[in-house]
Amino acid sequence: MLLQAEGGFHLVAETAKGSDVDLLVQFHKPDLLLLDLALSDSSGIEVARRVKRVAPQVRILIVTGNVYPGSVTNAFGAGANGFVLKHEQGNDLLDAIKTVMSGRQYVSPQVAKGLDQSAAKRPNATGMPQTLTRREQQIVRLIARGSTNQEIADQLHISVLTARKHRQNVMLKLGLHNGAEIAAYAMQSGLMEAPDIDSNL
Fold first, then answer.
1. 76 in Cβ contact with 105 (< 8 Å)
2. What is the DSSP letter of 121?
3. What CA–CA distance (Å, rounded) separates 50 from 193?
4. ∠166-171-174 over CA atoms, to 5°?
5. What residues pair up with 85 in beta bridges, in sequence order?
6. Are 66 and 87 in contact (CB under 8 A)?
7. How many helices (H) and strands (E) would you count in the chain?
8. HSE-up of 44 (CA within 13 Å, CB side)?
C-alpha cells in the first residue's frame, strides 16, 4: 500500500518461504528484494547469500522486526544493501529504498544507534559476538533447536547444572529473556548455518 501510494514501484512477487525466493528472483528479475530475516523455513541471512550468487545485481533491503547481536553485520556480509525496522515510519522505508537503489548502503538511525552502543560486542570472524565463548555458541545452537537443559547436558557430556548455567550466561550476555528469543537470534545471526562445533570442547 505504501509503495502503491508513492508510485513508481511494481510488486512482482511475494512469499513467506525462503526456499521460494531464489526461483522468484531468477524468474522475475527484480531490481529490489525486501527481505525479512525471520522466514518460515530459513534464515534471511542465508537467503541473501543465495540470491546474491544467482542475481548479484539485485539490491537487498532487510526489513525486519527485531535486531539481535550480529544481525546487521551478517546481513551486510551476506550481500544486503540496507537494513530497516518494520515499525519505523513509512517515510523511513521509502528513504531506505531510494538510498539502496542509488547504489549506497542504508542503516536506519535506530539500528545505527544500537550498533554504536554495542560496539564492544561486534561479531568476530565466525559471525558471533566476541563475548560468547565457543561453548556458549554451541549452547545457543542447541537451545535454538529446542533442546532442554537435560538434553544439552547429555549431548555435551556435562551436568544439568552446568547446562543451566551456560543458558543463563548466554541470555545475560545477549540481553535475551527466553528460548524463543535465543532461537530468533540464532536464525538472524546466521548461527544455524554455521558448521557444528565439536562437542568435546
1. yes
2. G
3. 12
4. 120
5. 64
6. no
7. 10, 4
8. 29
pTM (two decimals): 0.62
Tell me which residue has cell 548502503.
105
Give pLDDT tens digits for 92-144. Answer: 889 999 999 998 888 887 777 655 444 444 444 444 444 678 888 889 889 88
Residue 167 CB neighbours (<10 A)? 21
List the grid coordinates of 181. 528469543
Contact 65, 86 (CB under 8 A): yes
Q: What is the DSSP letter of 185?
A: H
> Which pLDDT score, from 0 to 100, does residue 28 have?
95
Q: Is 27 exposed, middle or buried (0-12, 13-18, 19+ CB in 10 A)?
A: exposed
Distance CA 119, CA 66 (A): 18
